[in-house]
Amino acid sequence: MNLNATLLAQMVVFLILAWFTMKFVWPPLIKALDERSQKIADGLAAAEKGKAELDAANKRVDQELSQARNEGQARIADAEKRAQVVADEIKRNAQAEAARIVAAAKADADQQIIKARESLRGEVAALAVRGAEQILKREIDANAHAQLLNQLKAEL
C-alpha cells in the first residue's frame, strides 16, 4: 500500500469526521455550553439580586427596630409622666383629706370646748346660787332671778 494513498484516505476520513462533528456534535455541545453559561449568569444575577434584597431587608429591620426602641422609650417616658401626675394627684388628694380631717377635728374640738364652757358656766352659776343661798341663809328662786343668772353665765 502506498503511503500517500493512506495519508490521503486518513485525511478524507479526518475531514469527514471533522465535518460530521462540526455539523452534528458541535451545535448541541455549544448550545448546552451556552445554556449552562446563561444559567450561571442568571444564578449570579439572582444571587446579586438576593444579596441586594437581603441588604434592603436588613436596613428595614434596623429601621423598624430603631423605631420600636424609640416608641418603647416614648411609651416609658409617657408612663413615667402619667405615674408622676397620678402620684401628684394622690398627694394633693391626701393633703386635702388631711386638711379636711384636721378642720373637722378642730371644729369638733371647738364644739366640745363651747359645750364644756356652757356646762362650766351652768355649774358655776349653780354654785354661785348655792353660795349666795348659804350667805343669805335663804333660798333664791331660780325662775325669778333667771335674767340675773343668765347675765352671770355670760360674764363667766
UniProtKB/TrEMBL annotation:
Q: Which Pfam families match?
A: ATP-synt_B
Q: Which residues form a coiled coil?
A: 44-71
Which keywords label this protein? ATP synthesis, Cell membrane, CF(0), Coiled coil, Hydrogen ion transport, Hydrolase, Ion transport, Membrane, Transmembrane, Transmembrane helix, Transport
What does the UniProt entry say about where the protein is found? Cell membrane; Endomembrane system
Q: Which domain of life is it from?
A: Bacteria
Subunit relationships: F-type ATPases have 2 components, F(1) - the catalytic core - and F(0) - the membrane proton channel. F(1) has five subunits: alpha(3), beta(3), gamma(1), delta(1), epsilon(1). F(0) has three main subunits: a(1), b(2) and c(10-14). The alpha and beta chains form an alternating ring which encloses part of the gamma chain. F(1) is attached to F(0) by a central stalk formed by the gamma and epsilon chains, while a peripheral stalk is formed by the delta and b chains. F-type ATPases have 2 components, F(1) - the catalytic core - and F(0) - the membrane proton channel. F(1) has five subunits: alpha(3), beta(3), gamma(1), delta(1), epsilon(1). F(0) has four main subunits: a(1), b(2) and c(10-14). The alpha and beta chains form an alternating ring which encloses part of the gamma chain. F(1) is attached to F(0) by a central stalk formed by the gamma and epsilon chains, while a peripheral stalk is formed by the delta and b chains.
**UniProt xrefs under NCBIfam families:** ATP_synt_b, PRK05759.1-2
Give the matching PANTHER family.
ATP SYNTHASE SUBUNIT B, ATP SYNTHASE SUBUNIT B', CHLOROPLASTIC
The protein's role, per its UniProt record: Component of the F(0) channel, it forms part of the peripheral stalk, linking F(1) to F(0). The b'-subunit is a diverged and duplicated form of b found in plants and photosynthetic bacteria.
Listed name of the protein:
ATP synthase subunit b
Species whose genome carries this gene: Pararobbsia silviterrae
Lineage, uppermost ranks: Bacteria, Pseudomonadati, Pseudomonadota, Betaproteobacteria, Burkholderiales
